[in-house]
Design a protein that fits this description.
Helices cover 37% and strands 17% of the residues. By secondary structure, the protein is an alpha/beta fold. The strands form five sheets. The chain has a five-stranded parallel β-sheet with strand order 5-4-6-10-11, sandwiched between helices. Strands 1-3-2 form a three-stranded mixed β-sheet, with no helix packed on it. Strands 7-8-9 form a three-stranded antiparallel β-sheet. A hairpin with a 5-residue loop joins strand 2 and strand 3. Helix 5 (105-113) crosses helix 12 (307-321). The longest helix is centred in the middle third of the chain and has 25 residues, at 193-217. 33% of the residues are buried.
């Protein structure tokens, strides 16, 4: 008689996921938030977790772990020794976090260099995000060196929008929490090219100032890292969000990079599309799957770097990072 081996970790994870879905459908959100903030021992306090863990759970488990003395759960594993010079750090957004990548470039780079790494990537982050959370900068300053990703200009303040360093924030006109792309869609809808240019120029100036301040606060060798499907130069247009933003990092152009790169100890560019789009495959069945999101369904990852692109990033960074070990 043939025996079937049961992977109980997968079974339990799948069942817990079903329980979570039921809870989300019947428990009011305010109560869920309150319960989420209760910690063992009756202590209350928020634990900030990447929304990607819930969104992408069918495809990947990001292995989030609490970062000591912070409210954050970051992508693990943590370095065994969170002490001065015990690791190097990668600071950035979803591309550094490694959305849809089982082995993001920080992990690959650590293995290549034979060094421990702290992944401080956070989805939707811009430079202001790290200024708003100085404890993360403290961790970066304990590292031997920092790889600092060039993040989106969309995640920055302007006269219309208070970003708080993320891809969503507060619309100044009515105090509503909205996505940055919705603010820019409304801006384009005005059809006023001069007004659009003014807001974009203000956003870019604020983004540059946030990066200058972040680089001032980083006290260890810092490698500025451009990781994108495009080169820094692009011609912006005002007919659609795609032409205004360009591909990630949105709104960032060659002039901005030219100003920043001289403030870092080194600069690395990795421009690649290898492996994109990436077919989404269920980690439970091994078959192609769909992620159903508000207003759209994903069968492929077309936005974030593919696993192959992360390999390209590691190869581009490796020789430069070796100099700082």
């Amino acid at each position: 008689m043939r025996r079937t081996t049961v992977n109980w970790e997968v079974v339990v994870s799948a069942r817990l996921d079903r329980v979570r879905r039921v809870v989300r459908s019947v428990v009011p959100r305010p109560l869920r938030v309150w319960l989420h903030r209760i910690r063992p021992g009756g202590k209350r306090g928020p634990r900030l977790r990447s929304g990607y863990q819930q969104r992408d759970y069918e495809v990947i488990d990001y292995g989030l772990v609490p970062l000591p003395d912070t409210a954050f759960a970051v992508r693990g594993p943590l370095p065994p020794r969170l002490a001065k010079d015990g690791y190097f750090a990668c600071v950035g957004a979803a591309q550094t976090f490694g959305a849809f990548a089982a082995h993001p470039y920080p992990e690959l780079l650590g293995k290549c260099l034979g060094a421990d790494v702290l992944n401080l990537g956070w989805g939707g982050a811009g430079p202001r995000f790290f200024l708003e959370h100085p404890r993360l900068i403290t961790y970066a300053n304990e590292a031997r060196f920092v790889v600092l990703q060039v993040m989106s200009g969309r995640s920055e303040d302007n006269e219309l929008f208070e970003s708080r360093g993320g891809s969503s924030g507060v619309r100044r006109s009515d105090g509503m929490t909205v996505l940055a792309r919705d603010v820019y869609a409304d801006l384009l809808a005005t059809g006023d090219a001069e007004y659009i240019r003014r807001v974009v120029a203000e956003t870019r100036a604020n983004w540059l100032e946030s990066y200058r301040e972040l680089l001032r606060r980083l006290e260890v060798p810092t490698i500025l890292f451009w990781f994108s499907k495009r080169r820094p130069h692009y011609v912006e247009g005002y007919s659609a969000l795609s032409t205004l933003f360009g591909e990630f990092p949105q709104l960032v152009n060659a002039d901005m990079i030219e100003e920043l790169r001289g403030l870092a100890d080194d600069y690395v560019e990795c421009v690649t599309r290898r492996g994109s789009p990436q077919l989404l495959v269920s980690r439970f069945t091994g078959r192609p799957t769909e992620l159903v999101l508000p207003g759209r369904t994903w069968t492929h990852n077309r936005y974030y770097p593919s696993p192959e692109m992360h390999l390209d990033a590691q190869e581009a960074l490796g020789p430069v990072c070796e100099r700082y070990l």
